[in-house]
Automatic annotation (TrEMBL), chain A:
Protein name stated in the entry: ATP-binding cassette domain-containing protein
GO MF: ATP binding; ATP hydrolysis activity
The keyword Membrane appears for this protein: no
Residue ranges of every copy of the ABC transporter domain listed in the record: 3-237
Keyword presence, ATP-binding: yes
Automatic annotation (TrEMBL), chain B:
UniProt similarity note: Belongs to the binding-protein-dependent transport system permease family. CysTW subfamily.
PANTHER family noted in UniProt: SULFATE TRANSPORT SYSTEM PERMEASE PROTEIN, SULFATE TRANSPORT SYSTEM PERMEASE PROTEIN CYST
Gene3D superfamilies linked: MetI-like
Protein location: Cell membrane
Record-level GO cellular component terms: plasma membrane
ABC transmembrane type-1 domain mapped to chain residues: 66-269
Keywords on record: Membrane, Sulfate transport, Transmembrane, Transmembrane helix, Transport
Name of the featured protein: Sulfate transport system permease protein CysT
Assembly mode: The complex is composed of two ATP-binding proteins (CysA), two transmembrane proteins (CysT and CysW) and a solute-binding protein (CysP).
Membrane topology: Multi-pass membrane protein
Transmembrane segments: 19-43, 64-90, 110-130, 142-162, 190-211, 218-241, 253-272
Broad class of the protein's primary localization: membrane
Source domain of life: Bacteria
Length: 366, 284
């Protein structure tokens, strides 16, 4: 099952939700659509499922035009964010649904359906839940049932919308591992939507980062983590500290920054913007330093320092493992040693005055 | 001293004040306005004695009235069940110009004095009325027949079905239908297997209320029915006639019978509802 998507656009009234999506997915691949809310990732998933229709573009699966095909006939497995289990049916009936609604001539015999359901219940390790109603299940159990219901019709393509969105942190981590194993065994092509980068990186073979209706970057998890292609991806992946620097012979430099650990880059000389993860920065006590510690909070494992940049009057936040942190108090002066970061031409960045607004937006969407 | 204070029981405080007052007023109201008259009716009925009661109820005229009332109410309810469900569906699922007006129109049977409705319907279905002029040449007589009775009942009780189904349908998460679509179900199957089971409890309430209301409908019916004894005389009207004849026992017996039918219906509907909602009862 090869999926080819080209120039896909979708607008809701005035809002452009998808602004030209090009993407192809190979057979057996596990792909994550990663992005903040409003980036269009769920709309893209729904278009692939046939639950929404684009205004223009191409969606081909195995060379067949899926925009001419109704959702009922696409035979995909879709797992909804809130699972959408039919509340008045038992787990068994929920899983059997896709088989029992087939037209009479292709519908398996009742015994065959029952057998298939039992087999799936075993595979998902929930045979004891067969006769319960969805209201009697925990979030994690519901997710398994929803997956079972989607897999019962033997789909070649599985689509999952925020598969862990409705679960609490511990259950999420356990189920992530389990889901990865299940998907590997099932061997179907899978696309899932998430706003959680950890989830996307841990599960997917390939991650598609989306922002504002466009694909910002496609790549393997490490690739995207280490080399975000655009300032948007950098910010979205947690590079929230942005410092203006000047490039000279491939090296970034700025007063009050010790950039010796950063590798040379092949970029033209001139102003640039350095994007850093708060944890990739070491504070070094320095009476002549450019930064003043405004306050120090502890999250247990980490110390979070809010700094005041005397040069730009920005207030970057950095984090450091508590046991490695030098003794720092509010009012101390420091300089910074970035350990790893990403440089973009200064024009590509957004002026620091706008950055806090973007950050607030991002936090509210998480 | 401190041990005494510690041993004193702490009375939990209610967060919302006024429980005693509001509950007291409500219960008094229910007692005076609802339960007391019902109790009086039952007591009056009990005075009659079983044989006399049986005699009144099996009198041909009473039986005919009950039969007419029940069949017409059943016809009206059957019509409302289908049409009310359709109406609720249209009002919830589609957007069209005039939707709000149509929605508001649905309340007219509730707001309109039933006598006014009865008069209007009689005028329409009379031989020289708009509908009557069309139907009577075709040999269809509505006024002074069971059809007219059923029509008047349907008119006054349709909002019960629409207004009970509508909010439930509105709250139904479209994800269930999306899920059914991705699983390969076609529209009618989705309605039958996913949507209808979800609205069934509300639908049953609406249908029961519609039937109960039709049984008791008086104002609208008496104008269109013609009220011929043994033919188009409804039970409530017969009770009024008995009352005017100073036959209090006869009136009470008929009223009591209607009351019992309504009660049985409500209990049955509640049991069915509980059964339809059993999947919600158990578990978290």
């Amino acid at each position: 099952m090869t999926i080819t998507i080209a120039h896909l656009t979708r607008r809701f009234g005035e809002t452009e939700v998808l602004r030209g999506i090009d993407l192809s997915v190979e057979k057996g691949e596990l792909v994550a659509l990663l992005g903040p809310s409003g980036s269009g990732k769920t709309t893209l998933l729904k278009i692939i499922a046939g639950l929404d229709w684009p205004d223009a573009g191409v969606l081909e699966v195995n060379g067949e035009d899926w925009l001419q095909k109704k959702a009922q006939d696409r035979r995909i497995g879709f797992v909804f964010q809130n699972y959408a289990l039919f509340p008045h049916m038992t787990v068994r009936d929920n899983i059997a649904f896709g088989l029992t609604v087939r037209p009479r001539d292709t519908r398996p015999a009742p015994a065959a359906i029952a057998g298939k359901v039992t087999e799936l219940l075993q595979f998902l390790q929930i045979p004891q839940l067969a006769d319960r109603f969805p209201a009697e299940l925990s979030g994690g159990q519901r997710q398994r049932v929803a997956l079972g219901r989607a897999m019962a019709i033997a789909p070649e393509l599985l689509l999952l919308d925020e598969p862990f969105g409705a679960l609490d942190a511990q259950v999420r981590r356990d189920l992530r591992r389990w889901l990865r194993e299940v998907l590997q065994q099932a061997g179907s092509t899978t696309i899932f939507v998430t706003h959680d980068q950890e989830e996307a990186f841990e599960l997917a073979d390939r991650v598609v980062v989306m922002g504002a209706g466009r694909i910002e970057q496609v790549g393997r998890p490490e690739e995207i983590h280490d080399h975000p292609a655009t300032p948007f991806v950098a910010r979205f992946l947690g590079m929230t500290v942005e410092l203006p620097v000047t490039l000279h012979a491939g090296r970034a430099g700025a007063p009050g920054l010790d950039t010796a650990s950063l590798p040379r880059v092949a970029m033209a000389d001139g102003p640039a913007m350095l994007f850093l993860r708060p944890t990739d920065i070491t504070p070094v006590p320095d009476p002549q330093g450019r930064f003043t510690v405004a306050d120090v909070t502890s999250t247990g494992a980490l110390l979070r320092l809010r700094l005041k940049d005397d040069l730009t009057s920005a207030e970057p936040e950095i984090e450091i493992a508590r046991r490695l942190a030098p003794p720092l108090r509010a009012g101390a002066r420091i300089h910074l040693r970035p350990e790893a970061g990403r440089l973009f031409p200064a024009t590509a960045g957004i002026p620091p005055a706008v950055a806090p607004a973007i950050k607030a937006l991002k936090e509210s969407s998480l | 001293m401190t041990t005494v204070a510690a041993a004193a029981r702490i009375r939990p405080k209610r967060v919302l004040p006024g429980f005693g007052l509001t509950m007291g007023v409500t219960l008094s109201y229910v007692g005076i306005i609802v339960l007391l008259p019902l109790a009086a009716l039952v007591l009056k009925g009990a005075e009659i004695g079983p044989e006399r009661f049986f005699a009144i109820m099996t009198a041909p005229r009473t039986l005919a009235a009950l039969k007419l009332t029940l069949s017409a109410a059943a016809m009206a309810t059957a019509f409302n069940a289908v049409y009310g469900l359709l109406m609720a569906w249209v009002l919830v699922r589609y957007d069209f110009p005039g939707k709000r007006i149509l929605d508001a129109l649905m309340d007219i049977p509730f707001a309109l004095p039933t006598a006014v409705a009865g008069l209007a319907l009689s005028a329409l279905f009379a031989g020289n009325g708009w509908y009557g002029a069309l139907l009577e040449p075709m040999g269809i007589q509505v006024i002074f027949t069971i059809w007219g009775v059923a029509f008047a009942m349907a008119f006054t009780s349709i909002p019960f079905v629409v207004r009970t189904v509508q909010p439930v349908l509105e709250d139904l998460d479209p994800q269930y239908e999306d899920a059914a679509v991705t699983l390969g179900a076609h529209p009618f199957t989705i309605f039958r297997r996913v949507v209808f089971p979800a609205i069934l409890p509300a639908f049953m309430v609406g249908v029961t209320l519609s039937f109960a209301r039709s049984l008791g409908e008086f104002g609208a019916v008496v104008f269109i029915a013609g009220n011929l004894p043994m033919k188009t005389e409804i039970a409530s009207l017969l009770a009024v006639i008995r009352l005017e004849e100073y036959d209090y026992n006869g009136a009470a017996a008929i009223a009591l019978t209607l009351l019992m039918i309504a009660l049985v219906l409500l209990v049955a509907s509640n049991l069915l509802q509980a059964r339809a909602l059993r999947y919600k009862g158990r578990g978290a």
